[in-house]
Write a structure and sequence with these properties.
Elements: E1 5-7, E2 11-12, E3 18-23, H1 26-31, E4 33-39, E5 46-51, E6 58-60, E7 68-73, E8 78-83, E9 92-99, H2 102-106, E10 112-113, E11 117-121
Parallel strand pairs: 2-11
Antiparallel strand pairs: 1-3, 3-8, 4-5, 4-9, 5-6, 7-8, 9-10, 9-11
Length: 123
């Protein structure tokens, strides 16, 4: 069974940083591309980026490029989303996603989702 468990969400001031974690299994990490999406209240889900399971290549959508980065720790079966220079509009629930297609993750239409972790950016 594929499991994705997010953690690291918190209340942070504008301009601050957070690192979100997505814990999964070694099988999932090897078999599926894994990435991140978010959903703010009243808004549609937004894909943020993805790590390609085949070559470790990082994909980040233009809207957050330069502020968000994705990385993985294969030894600990964990994918990270580093958030920097956070803005109030980044307030959302952040989800870890898995799919066999990178494209589906980047448009937040992946088959598998975690439960999410809340990020609130406010002074």
């Amino acid at each position: 069974q594929l499991t994705l468990v997010e953690s690291g969400g918190n209340l942070v001031q504008p301009g601050g940083s957070l690192r979100l974690s997505c814990a999964t299994s070694a099988f999932t990490l090897k078999t599926y591309h894994i990435g991140w999406a978010r959903q703010a209240p009243g808004k549609d889900r937004e894909g943020l980026g993805c790590i390609d399971s085949d070559d470790g290549r990082e994909y980040v959508v233009d809207s957050v490029k330069g502020r968000f980065t994705i990385s993985r720790d294969v030894a600990n079966n964990t994918i990270y989303l580093q958030l920097t220079n956070l803005k109030p509009e980044d307030t959302a629930t952040y989800y870890c996603l898995a799919d066999v297609y990178v494209s589906k993750i980047l448009i937040a239409r992946a088959d598998c989702w975690g439960r999410g972790t809340q990020v609130t950016v406010s002074s």
